[in-house]
Amino acid sequence: MSSKYETVVGLEVHTELKTNSKIFCGCTTEFGGAQNTHVCPVCLGLPGVLPVLNKKVVEYAIKVGLALNCEILHFNKFDRKNYYYPDLPKNWQTSQYDLPICLNGHLDVEVNGETRRIRITRIHMEEDAGKLVHSGNTISDSNSSNVDYNRTGVPLLEIVSEPDIRSGAEAKAYVEKLRSILQYLDVTDARMEEGSLRCDANISVRLRGTEKLGTKSEIKNMNTLTGIQKGIEYEALRQAMLIEEGGQVIQETRTWDDAQGITLSMRKKEAENDYRYFPEPDLVPIIITDEEIEAVRAELPELPDQKMDRFVNQYGLSVEDSTILTSTRQMADYLDATVNAGSDAKTASNWILGDLSKMVNENGLTFGESKVPAENLAGMIALMDKGTISGKIAKKVIVSMWESGKDADTIVKEEGLVQITDTGAIEEIVKQVIANNPQPVEDFKSGNGKAIGFLVGQVMKESKGRANPGVVNQLLQKHLND
């Protein structure tokens, strides 16, 4: 986009809460299931039924608000947001409007080495709508749509930012960090691929250096990080080009078509007064005491920024490694557990970010599902520290631990992988390798220092990787320089 224009973005992030039952009834919130089987008269909005608020939803909302530096409103209430859409069986959504549970928070994100503070306007509780099942890939290319009400009434938090975001990359970083915090809090699984974390982006452009906001369009229900970034970048470019051509941006709701890499118009964007908000008459206001807020605060876990500071300052890890390690709570907890089992933090970090991450990712698992428990990784590192196995042998051991579930000590004994540290035994192999490889020996003596690398490799091969590399180097240097 031309540097003449500045992108202005505000995000509305919706996250489903990890409660056992829905927000106003006892139906399960479990993902999946046959269509329209996780429903009852309450979440279907049948006549004569009354909602009952799930207390856990309020607790989770307070927890998220505190983690995002918000003010918790002691008096808040539910409202009816009135609109017609097939996935909304009551023709209104029970949400919060003028008195939400959380106000005035912020989240700091880092993009291209610069820290940006994104203000959070509000966080409010609401019920999710149903899900339209389209015959095509998107609503725009479908001939028909069916509706599945299983998701109707699943508790949601909507986290609304101020229009402080200035690029698709910033929006991606914001949602990524927000998702990480929500997972640390354990209030949601935040699985974007299942729709439990979704994002609506309000986008406008304005001449750089001006303060007045342009006319915004809204991209609905983006559920991938790359889609959020690309959708915002495309929409900002579309608006800027439209203005340059003498056109006018209209306030509308659009959808992101990932296959085509474009946004498509869906419908005219409603204004707030179109929703005819009014207080929900079937639910009493919510009163939250200071004692209740402090009780939730006391249960807050160590959050990503706090963990990263500790990993850098206490463990001595780099900022880069700490950023990756704290990106998910499961990986961060795995490192802590390995260190608590006796390992050096840097060594444990190297194995976690290297071989173990590769196996976890290749198997489509998380660190919480790793087939190598943290104490087993610590046990393997202890064998390396004692000189029982070398780093090369350890690479075999960690694979065997993953495949067998056995600890390192058992594998090393069963497979005869104990490192050879006996100088006499290694020296015999060294002499044999020197005798069998006259050309590399001559190359080394002629000044090619790199030739010793080939000889080291041959000794390790003959010893099946069990010779102590340090002893091998010493003995080769000794015999080659005689």
Protein described:
Strands 2-6-7-10-1-11-12-13-14 form a 9-stranded mixed beta sheet. A 3-stranded antiparallel beta sheet has the order 5-4-15, with no helix packed on it. α13 (about 440-445) runs antiparallel to α14. The longest helix is centred in the middle third of the chain and has 20 residues, at about 225-245. It folds into 3 domains: about 5-290, no CATH class; about 300-415, no CATH class; about 425-480, Arc Repressor Mutant, subunit A. It contains 15 helices and 16 strands. By secondary structure, the protein is an alpha+beta fold. It has helices at about 55-65, 170-185, 225-245, 290-300, 305-315, 320-325, 330-340, 345-360, 375-385, 390-405, 410-415, 425-435, 440-445, 450-460, 470-480, and strands at about 5-15, 70, 75, 80, 90-95, 100-110, 115-125, 130-135, 145-150, 155-160, 195-205, 215-220, 250-255, 260-270, 280, 285. Belongs to the GatB/GatE family. GatB subfamily.
